[in-house]
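Appendix B, Record 12. Input sequence as logged:
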Amino acid sequence: MKNARMTERLTFDRPMHSLLPWILNGTLIAAAVFIHYETLYSMARHLPNLTNVPPRYRVLLGVFAILVAHAVEIWVFALGYYTMVHLGLGNLFGMTTPDLLGDCVYLSWISFTTVGFGDVAANGDLRFLPGLEALTGFVLITWSASFLFIEMQKFWPMTKHVEHHPENHDH
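Logged structural output:
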């Protein structure tokens, strides 16, 4: 009887090649990329115009704006998990709680940031989303770092370059 249950779990009631999960996954990725693009584009346009804000604080504003953008993107994915569970495309298992939305937000945070503890996981067609979210999060986080590096070069004053001479111990 136990082996029959295991065999049942390995067979699927519906084909795994359904397009709906992939359409939803693509939509979530596109939404996150769009949010990120618009955030960075808006900052690139508006940060230079904040002339009443010292340049070093403009970079700090950029950091906080990007953190907010990442949080919004993570919530977009969390709502995607939540929706897909309610559509019957999979479920969360592991160290879950009675709060499904909270578990979806938690899984989204650990997936987007590529921490991936593994204490909460997805099954069914939903199991593809954490990997896709991790890839998307990695790309968006590195895009953010590149953007901030460029902005720091624009707004932070350049110091005089000091060449190192091994025989000189003054610096």
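The first helix runs from residue 2 to 10.
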